[in-house]
Prior knowledge:
This protein is of the alpha/beta class. The protein has helices spanning 64-81, 95-99, 103-114, 123-137, 174-181, 189-211, 223-234, 243-256, 269-272, 275-288, 301-308, 318-329, 334-352, 362-372, 384-393, 402-413, 429-448, 482-496; strands spanning 17-23, 27-36, 39-49, 89-93, 119-120, 143-149, 154-160, 163-170, 217-220, 241-242, 293-296, 461-465, 468-472, 501-504. Helix content is 46%, strand content 16%.
Amino acid sequence: MNNNTEVSAPFAQPEQLYAAVDLGSNSFHMVIVRVVAGSVHIIGKVKQKVRLAAGLDENMVLDQLSLERGWKCLETFAERLQDIPLSNIKIVGTATLRLAANADVFIKKAETILKHKLNVIDGEEEARQIYLGVAYTSANQGNSLVIDIGGASTEVIVGNDMTPIHLVSMNMGCVTFKERFFADGNISEGNFEDAIKQAKFLLEPVANDFINFDWQQCLGASGTPQAITEILVTQGISDSIRIDYLHNLKQQCIDCVTIDLLQIDGLTESRRAIFPSGLAILIALFEQLNIQEMQISGGALREGLIYGMLDNMQQIDRRLQTLEQCIERFHIDPEHAYRVKGIALSLFKQVQNKMVLGKVDCEAMLMASAMLHETGLHIEYKLHHQHGAYILSHLPLVGYTQQQCAGIKTLVQSHRQEIKLDLFDSFHPEVRKALLVLVRVLRLSCLLSIRRKDNLLADFTLITEGEKWTLTFPEGWLKSHPLIDAELANEKWQQHKVGWTLQCF
């Protein structure tokens, strides 16, 4: 046997790898992706709390300790970047490196360590890249307001689909506000009010520009919004960020008296020191821009840098791509997925005219849950609804907000067998109401397509009167289809047990 024989393996070729490095004022981030057949897969993420902005003195000079922290972090990044073509790497610095008088000292050594050029981008370019990162990973619904609270700057952008329309970058961030308003480590009503007042003062000249844009959704990118969402999820609240939650968290911070004693269920240790200052800025944004609720986006600056290198990704329907990738990955029957989706949408159109479902994007969650309801089948049949829910709770669904992902997972878990209303209790009342309508639609859609054939189902009508739903078929059709008749009879019983009425004729 020739021991020198080379064996080729189907591993990723170097030109398929891309990397983006974001040297932020609070954290340094690196994300590495592999592109396969037009699909982007994250294969590596590194985040280190450097708190570069904390090293700025009154003359805007970075102290030696902060410089050393930054360089040490970049040494770990540099080794991983060696495996990626230089043309597929983007490295940017943001607010602190814009502000620092001795930024050139940091940049010169950083470029030596990384063996790559470091570009310090201005505030508008940072805002534009943040918007693109959000837009690529979170499907837009009309005009969207995007907010990113960084360590030394806050970016506010309004845009539509892939196009940012109006944007600003302001010199306020969770690290710089901590040094200014919470430097002694004390947390008080006075500290919070001073921080909120200053943030509102900085927002005042631009607030009307954003309020006048009639945006349909607000998306928060990483940082403080992400930390608050993690707190809500840990505390069993599957909801958007709302102003009453922010004021409640503010009071919890004040009750802890000092940053050293700050303990909130769901707040990570790495976020603790800068949480009050970031929260103060977010409260000011909510109040000054009349924000009712905020969802968490799937991306931010580094994702914008990555997708900016992939021009062919701009016209892709992110949600559809996500669903089709899941169908292939989990061996879901694609014809049946689209069949159930079609029936579900047909039923929903007959329902939605009779019900007020608020601003919840019902069709997005219904389509996804209909197409992915068999995700768990490749594990086993008996409990495949539970297996599917488990998989979806750990799967990033690009194009969907965190709340939508939670809704899709819960719908899949509830599409068959016993209805458990307590699964919906963690959602906001408006969202819960919509999901309870969607789960009835989804269950009927799966049941009516049980024979897995097209053109089998006769025309039907669905009439709703509150909790009473009536499904009507042509005369004699149910009698001639005993399987579906029996399944509908069982579904009547399941819905009756939770106080709903289903009639079928």
